[in-house]
Amino acid sequence: MAEALMQMYETMTETAQKELYDFALFLFSREEKKAVQQKKSMFGALKDKISYIAPDFDEPLEDFAEYM
Questions:
Q1: I need a labelling partner for 53 at 20 to 30 A (CA). Which of 4, 25, 59, 66 fits?
Q2: pTM (two decimals)
Q3: Model confidence over 18-58: pLDDT tens digits?
């Protein structure tokens, strides 16, 4: 597959080669971002991020009173 890709690359104009290179850089950066996001996804990652919880947060909602 790499050989076929190189053959196509060599037949492209310089502008098309630059676009292909830029697209490859985009794909690599996207993969790196995914890897970083996966590493950050740990227990406690959102610790201290909640700044306010209403006092009645755990109270039943009026909309669901007929189901309770």
A1: 66
A2: 0.46
A3: 999 999 899 888 888 777 766 666 677 677 788 888 898 89
Q: DSSP for 41-66?
A: --TTTTTT------TTTTSPPGGGGG
Q: Are 57 and 65 in contact (CB under 8 A)?
A: no
- Which amino acid is residue 43, in one-letter code? F
Which two structure tokens, joined as six digits, stand for 17?
């080669």
Residue with token string 């794909």:
27
Q: What are phi and psi of 12, to 5 degrees?
A: -80, 155
Q: Amino acid letter at 64?
A: F
Residue type, 3: E
